[in-house]
Amino acid sequence: MTELKVGSYLARFADGGIRILKNGETLYFNARPVYVSVKTYGAVNEFRDTAYDRVEEQNGTVTGESLFVTKNGSEIAVRDIWSVHGGTLKIAREAKVRKSSEDDLGFQTKISFYQALSENLRDYDYFSPGQWYRDNAYAADFALGKNMDLQYYWRKETWSGLPMFAMRHKESGETVSLSRWEADATLPSLDRTATENYAYVDPRMTVGSFGVSKARPEALTYTYYGHMMATPLPDAQCDGVSADYIYPAVNGQQPYRNWGPFSPRQPLSNVTWVHPVREGFVQRYTVAAAFDRYDSFGRMLRETWRQVYTRLKDRLFEVDNAQLYEHMMRFLKKVTRQFGEAWGTPFVAQLPDFDPNSFSAEIGFVGQQAGIGYQLLRWGRLREDAEAVEKGLGILNFWAEHTMTDAGFPRLWVHLSVHQDEPQPLWVRQIGDGLEAILDAYVFEKKRGIPHAGWLDYCVRTAEWLVSVQNEDGSFYRSYHDDGSCCMDSKASTQCVVRFLIQLYLVTKQDRYLRAAERAGEWSRVHQYEGFEYRGGPCDTSDIMDKESGIYAMFAYIALYDISGDRKWLEAACGAADYTETFTFVWDFPVYNPYPAHPFNRYHISGQSNVSVGAPGGDIYMAACSYTYYRLWLMTGDRHYCDFAEFLNRNCKQANDVDGACGYRYTGLVNEGANFSEQEYRSRYHWLPWCTFVEVDPASRFYDTFGAHEIADIEKLPLEERQARNRIYDHYAEGISCIQ
After folding, report:
1. Are residues 152 and 276 in the same domain?
2. CA nearest to 105, candidates 18, 200, 230
3. How far apart are the first and last CA of the chain?
4. For the chain, how many structural domains are there in total?
5. Last residue of a domain, one of 282, 312, 342
6. 167 in the Ramachandran plot: left (φ > 0), alpha (ψ -120 to 50) or beta?
7. Cβ–Cβ < 8 Å for 617, 673
8. pLDDT digits over 148-201, tens only?
9. 355 shares its domain with 246
């Protein structure tokens, strides 16, 4: 018997298998650590596992070896090297094909830990960054875990911001976390395409999949339209629920769209990659396994994420943020045009030439017209740039003077060049974005002795309407009809207007706005922070779990903490921040890009972030949060938030043509986002206004609060001074007398 100590846990090797014990109790085990799945010539993936033939220990390292022989006579020699590093178990595997049969086409191997505490999949909380949170109850239908009666829940690691997976036993809190040891993925073969439910042989695939399984001794074969056929495997053994890393990757079993001449009740997708069963071929990969106990899912998410973050975070991108900010503001000034009484930017423009396709305009969300108006006005005043001031005023005056309705709320979506309102409901998310920007612009100008009574009236009328329609439980509906009645009875966007209401209270001193903000914040704290219902953030998705709901929860809770000092809001802000962070691609892997001018041909994809739970690839929206995470560091003293703030402030800019070298029409331009989780960049390849706004907004906030654009420069200030400056509401409405 051989043992390795892993923190307070013990890895014990005996009888060719392994057990993980704590205080003498077995928590995890694998009696047959060598698992091999073989794609046969009949395109059936048959699996079997076996114990180690030999186990040796030397100088704190355990080596387990086995010769696996397939049914057709192929021989695969597997050697695992187990060691402990910083309380983490490191498993380095080498699988070499010694003999091949023409009836064996490809193979995978798997590193797994079976759960000893329960064989019920529903007894666990799951965490796969951007893909799976607890039971994914509020995720889209295509997300992992929506049907817990399947056998396999595996997702390619390139779908997640960090290549990891954790599962926590709900009753005991015991948690196993698996992760890739190094960020050393390479490009797969580019001369083939995996499109349907088959196993594809690719000798260059170096990406695996994490997940959980409860396998049965049967091979699953899927038709292209998602129908499953099971073939018994009498020699296979299965021991219950296991946390897995399978290499190369599998995306399966996933809900699938109906397709083809036959539509099963629930079509499933199960796409697999295998390495060739070719004599001399060697498969190598390394996995980390960590074990701990956590009292809550949120604590498990935070700690397991940070463990891998420290090891695999990409290098910081070199960018001059002050210079990039100037490029982006000059670009916004250039592309803002007048259409009669209306002013604004294009709604969408194709890259690389910035070809405008629409002048549809939203006050907030993806259009961010009011926010851009404020940014142009602010920048123009500070630079004494009359054109920027004119265009900023033009945007703000248009919305304040021409979009308020008789019902007391504004039109949020209009078409600038055809001068018509667009048939969209009244989105609470849009109100929060747009009205907050107009109020910020009002305060900015008022402090310079320039009154804009119409802007304040626009904000007050909208706030009065919000107060009048607020539900008894403190919530707001996600959207409303033109007559003010409920359009979508979800309340998931309630947090989006909290910061606006608080800041209007600071300007007007009207307690009802603060009370409305507090009630909305309390609803959000209970349902989103405590209930983990972070959903419905974007206006163009269904009511599903996503990143932006977490972002706006952060904004709300921090504003409530700023105004009250009540630490329950700071606790909620940290919870929302920890959740939201995990949508970010912190590690880097190579991605084939077909667009010659795209910055990702020069830079890395780190800094992008999944949009909603279960979605592939992502966008640059986390750029909006660098200032917020930095403020959180000053409030909590948690250095990680400072580190992550700098990561966002720099690495999100890798999607920009930061210095004009990439070939976009305007220096500083940025692409919205793409699906790149299959290591091929598949994008609409366009710019939308929010893409630049979410970068200039935190840049201006950093400068206004701390006097610099780079966190490294801000950190040179004394801590006491930074913390004093961080009390932004002490001075938000200073010198403004607008009591109503």
Report:
1. yes
2. 200
3. 79
4. 2
5. 312
6. beta
7. yes
8. 999 999 999 999 999 999 999 999 999 999 999 999 999 999 998 888 889 999
9. no
Strand 420-421's sheet: what is its strand order?
A: 360-362, 413-415, 420-421
Assess whether 228 and 332 both reside in one domain.
no
- Round to whole Å and give the CA distance between 591 and 25: 44
The CA distance from 497 to 493, in Å, is: 8
How far is it, in rounded angstroms, from Cα 657 to Cα 308?
30
Q: In a 10 Å sphere around its CB, with 0-12 CB exposed, 13-18 middle and 19+ buried, how is residue 45 labelled?
A: buried
pLDDT band, residue 263 (cuts 50/70/90): low
Residue 268 confidence (pLDDT): 86
* Per-residue pLDDT, 260: 61
* Cβ-Cβ contacts under 8 Å for 213 (sequence gap 6 or more): 112, 151, 152, 153, 154, 241, 242, 244
Residues in the chain, how many? 740
Side-chain-side CA neighbours of residue 664 (13 Å): 27
Q: What is the DSSP letter of 691?
A: H
The partner residues of 88 in beta bridges, in order of sequence, read 85
Give the three-state DSSP class for 126. Answer: strand
Distance between CA atoms of 160 and 524, rounded to whole angstroms?
A: 26
Preceding peptide of 248 cis, ω within 30°: yes
List, for residues 90-104, the tens digit of each pLDDT value: 999 999 999 999 999
Give dist(CA 205, CA 404) in Å, integer: 56
* 277, 107 Cβ separation under 8 angstroms: yes
pLDDT digits 0-9 by tens, 249-260 = 999 898 876 666
The whole-number pLDDT of residue 282 equals 98
- Tell me, yes or no, if the pTM score tops 0.70: yes
Token pair 């001399």 is found at 280
Measured CA to CA, the distance from residue 358 to residue 416 in angstroms comes to 9
In a domain, 666, yes or no: yes
Q: What's at 312, amino acid-wise? A: L
Within 8 A by CB and 6+ apart from 578, the residues are: 298, 301, 302, 305
The stretch 58-84 carries a mean pLDDT of: 97
Please, is 1 exposed, middle or buried when counting C-beta atoms within 10 Å of its C-beta (0-12, 13-18, 19+)?
exposed
196 lies in some domain: yes
Residues 617 and 548 in one domain: yes
In a domain, 672, yes or no: yes
Specify the pLDDT at position 261. 61
Q: Which domain holds residue 242?
A: 2-312
**How far apart, in whole angstroms, are the C-alpha atoms of residue 377 and residue 431?**
20
Answer yes or no: do 246 and 375 share one domain: no
Q: Please indicate, yes or no, whether residues 289 and 190 belong to a single structural domain of this protein.
A: yes
DSSP state for residue 313 in the 8-state scheme: P
Mean pLDDT of the chain: 96
For residue 527, the 8-state DSSP code is I
With beta carbons less than 8 A apart as the criterion, state whether 411 and 405 touch: yes
CA-based torsion, 423, 428, 431, 434: positive or negative: negative
Alpha helices in 384-492 (DSSP H): 386-402, 428-446, 453-469
